[in-house]
Specification:
With 192 residues, the chain is mainly alpha-helical. Helices cover 69% and strands 0% of the residues.
Length: 192
């Protein structure tokens, strides 16, 4: 039996093994309601809404599992880099040649201790590192774009407030709210 991966463990633990109709049919769902409302046309709508909400949640969990697995791989590579750096710099500055050859070093293969990378074994790791960097750069660009647009929106709103321009029909909304308040309170004393 092979060792389970982080992704397979999280998938097994966090994702349901079956779809909602397999676990809970519409008839069983309807049985949860009082007898007087079981024939309501709203119950199938609620059931479909529950299916949709469940599907959205499952998709979000699946995406988070994928992101967590990628982050785990990145952390694993960072730990390997850190260990290699520590081995190179090491506490003893004057390493003998025999000790240096015994270390994994920069070209060590992660699939086995003491094995050097070959061209075929280093290319996938370099590709993975490149894709990690590209993904991180894309995330940073997206975040920078979101922050910039939010800052521009905030500056625009502050500028509107400074010059007395309110977004939309704020004046009409306030007047309508005041009319509703008067109607609710039964009118203002002294007004006819």
């Amino acid at each position: 039996m092979s060792n389970p991966t982080e992704s397979s463990l999280l998938t097994h633990l966090l994702l349901p093994p079956a779809s909602l109709p397999t676990i809970l049919t519409l008839q069983k769902f309807t049985a949860f309601f009082p007898v007087s409302v079981r024939s309501s046309p709203q119950i199938p709508l609620l059931y479909r809404d529950l299916q949709h909400q469940r599907a959205v949640q499952i998709d979000a969990v699946r995406k988070n599992i994928f992101a967590e697995a990628k982050r785990g791989e990145s952390l694993k590579r960072e730990v390997i880099r850190s260990r290699r750096r520590e081995e190179r710099e090491g506490p003893g500055l004057g390493l003998d040649v025999e000790e240096d050859e015994g270390m994994d070093g920069l070209l060590a293969n992660t699939s086995g201790p003491g094995k050097l990378h070959t061209l075929a074994s280093i290319l996938p790791e370099l590709d993975a590192a490149c894709s990690d960097l590209e993904a991180e750069i894309a995330e940073l660009k997206d975040e920078a774009g979101r922050v910039l647009s939010e800052m521009q929106r905030t500056v625009g709103e502050l500028s509107d407030l400074r010059y007395g321009r309110f977004p939309g029909s704020v004046r009409e909304d306030v007047l309508e709210g005041l009319k509703e308040l008067r109607a609710t309170a039964g009118g203002v004393p002294g007004e006819s």
